[in-house]
Structure formats: structure tokens, C-alpha cells
Design a protein that fits this description.
- With 325 residues, the protein is an alpha/beta fold.
- The chain folds into 2 domains: 143 residues, Rossmann fold; 150 residues, Dihydrodipicolinate Reductase, domain 2 (2-Layer Sandwich), CATH 3.30.360.
- An 8-stranded mixed β-sheet has the order 8-9-10-7-11-12-13-14, with helices on one face. Strands 3-2-1-4-5-6 form a 6-stranded parallel β-sheet, with helices on both faces.
- Helix 4 packs parallel to helix 5, helix 5 packs antiparallel against helix 10 and helix 8 crosses helix 10.
């Protein structure tokens, strides 16, 4: 086999541009089947994206002989069942972040993958984008000296639909948590990608605005490898004029800062600040899919393993539920 033919479970907004079209743009890859429960929306998606096979039953997609691998793009509550069903069929899986509803589900998925030998990759795709690869290069080449502190600050105003029956990201029973569980996996994965493991961590969360069942404010601290101190603050009910997306790395000889959901690096060295601009990617996940396809074909290593993703899940649970390591 020299081509991976993908089946995709879930056809929500994340797949319209960020991921779906990329499967047909990567060498040795094609999207051949999609699944969604809503038959009308499913047919519309398949027609617009020229996908030949479409199903309202996930098992039909998984068992289809033309499907070699499965991309799971549903809310986190369903990741475990779909991933294990696909791996039972001997088909490798690419799972959206967060990896699952909670750490226990992640561990079961990981154990099943190891038990069966069927491959699994998690969609922490920012680690494959040029901006973050440049940050890693700057860190690894000691462009700002020895790293001492890392800080994440994310402030967002409360807005949108607060009804968890219509906005699943605000229903902890479906999403695992609130907007923190939706956005922090990207941010925390970059922390571990750049700096290694967390040696200890603790945090707290609260629902300050009371607009929905999930937490809206989170704070956490970590001690990383090499003595690096981490502090993170997330607030999703901040005043509109305080909107912020900051990832800041402080070293003995300078500072690197950038927005995780933006396109510019600010590099400060010896009192001089330089901005490094990047073009927005057309398809956010394409760079990671370019690494997944060879891995599924038996070439190269896993670009984001379950063990990678579970680091973020452990810390997220600690911050939200107040457990300490």
C-alpha cells in the first residue's frame, strides 16, 4: 500500500477548512468516506467536498473496504468508542484534540492501541506549523539563553451561544470541560513540545460568570524539566478590551512571545525586538497530516502520540479539578 484512503467520522466546522480538504492535498492520501448522523448535512458535505462514500452509521464507514484509516472529528465524548472500534477493525486512527473526555478514557485508548499494535495519532497539529517550529528552533539553539520562565495568558470576552445543548463545548459531559478544554490542549502541548515533561503541577478553576455549566476561569503552575517555571491564566469572561492571547518565553538573554492563535513571533535580544511574520496556513492540519501518512505507511515515527497528548490531559485535569502532582 502506498496511499492512505481516509474515512472521516464527523463533518463539523473544524473539518470544512482546517482538516478535511488537506487529506486530498497530501501526497499518498485521499479522503474517500465521511460519516455524520444528519443525513441531509452529510450528503451536502460529501457533495461539496467530492467525497464518494458517505454514511450515517459509523460502523459502515469503519468496515468499508476502501477505508484504510479513520479520522475522528467528533466531540470528545465519542472519541474513545470510535477509536477503539476502528482499531478493532485493524485501522489506524487520527483523533481530534482533546484526545478524549478525560484521562481515564485516553489511557484506555492508548492501552488498546498498544495491545493491538494499531497506530494512533492525536491532532496537536500546531507542533507541525512553521511558526511553532521556528519557536522550537530558537529555544533549542539558545537564541535567548537558558530558559527560566514560561507564561500563557488567554483572556476572552464571554460571547456566543451559552446553551450547552446547542454549544457542546460548554457541556463538560460532552467536551470534558469548557472553552479551556477546547483551546488549552494546543497551548499546553506546545509547552511540552518545547520544554519537555512537567515534573509537578497544580491549579484551580471556577465558574465566575455563571453563564454555563463549565469552568470559565483557570489558573495553573508547573515545574518543567531543567527547572523551568510555568504559569498559566485563562479567563473566558474577561472585559472585551482585555482580549489577550500570549505565550511568553523568558530566557537569561532575551524573550520570545507570540499568540498561539496568531501569526507573529516577537523576539527580543539585547534590547532589540524583531517581529517574524508567518502566513496563515490554508489548512491548519495539513503539515501534521503530511507526517501522519508516512507513519501509517510504515515510514518514520509518530508525530504526536497518545503519550504526548496525555501530558496535556493530566495537567488540564489537575488545573480544573484541583488535583496536585
Amino acid at each position: 500500500m502506498n496511499t492512505i484512503r481516509w474515512g472521516m467520522i464527523g463533518c463539523g466546522s473544524v473539518t470544512e477548512l482546517k482538516s478535511g480538504p488537506a487529506f486530498n492535498k497530501v501526497e499518498g492520501s485521499s479522503l474517500v468516506a465521511v460519516m455524520r448522523r444528519d443525513a441531509q448535512k452529510l450528503k451536502d458535505y460529501a457533495n461539496r467536498h467530492n467525497v464518494p462514500h458517505f454514511f450515517t452509521d459509523s460502523n459502515e464507514l469503519i468496515q468499508h473496504p476502501e477505508v484504510d484509516a479513520v479520522y475522528i472529528a467528533t466531540p470528545p465524548k465519542y472519541h474513545e468508542d470510535y477509536a477503539i472500534a476502528a482499531m478493532k477493525a485493524g485501522k489506524p486512527v487520527y483523533v481530534e484534540k482533546p484526545m478524549a473526555l478525560d484521562l481515564a478514557a485516553c489511557m484506555r485508548m492508548d492501552a488498546f492501541s498498544k495491545q493491538t499494535g494499531v497506530k494512533m495519532v492525536i491532532a496537536h497539529y500546531r507542533r507541525a506549523l512553521p511558526l511553532f517550529l521556528e519557536v522550537k528552533r530558537l529555544v533549542d539553539t539558545h537564541a535567548i539563553g537558558q530558559i527560566t520562565n514560561v507564561r500563557i495568558e488567554m483572556l476572552k470576552k464571554a460571547g456566543g451561544n451559552f446553551d450547552p445543548t446547542q454549544n457542546w463545548r460548554l457541556d463538560p459531559s460532552v467536551a470534558g470541560g469548557g472553552y479551556f478544554y477546547d483551546l488549552a490542549p494546543h497551548q499546553l502541548d506546545l509547552v511540552f513540545y518545547f520544554f519537555g515533561k512537567a515534573l509537578s503541577y497544580h491549579g484551580s478553576a471556577s465558574n465566575q460568570a455563571g453563564l454555563y455549566p463549565a469552568e470559565d476561569t483557570v489558573a495553573g503552575n508547573m515545574l518543567l524539566e531543567n527547572g523551568i517555571q510555568f504559569k498559566g491564566d485563562w479567563c473566558f469572561c474577561a472585559p472585551a478590551d482585555q482580549d489577550k492571547d500570549l505565550f511568553e518565553i523568558t530566557g537569561t538573554e532575551g524573550k520570545i512571545s507570540f499568540p498561539v492563535f496568531g501569526h507573529t513571533i516577537s523576539l527580543s535580544q539585547k534590547g532589540i525586538t524583531k517581529l517574524i511574520e508567518f502566513d496563515p496556513p490554508e489548512h491548519n492540519q495539513q503539515n501534521l497530516i503530511e507526517k501522519i501518512v508516512p507513519y501509517f505507511l510504515g515510514i518514520g515515527s509518530n508525530p504526536c502520540s497518545a503519550e504526548d497528548a496525555m501530558q496535556s490531559m493530566r495537567v488540564m485535569e489537575s488545573f480544573v479539578y484541583g488535583t496536585t502532582k
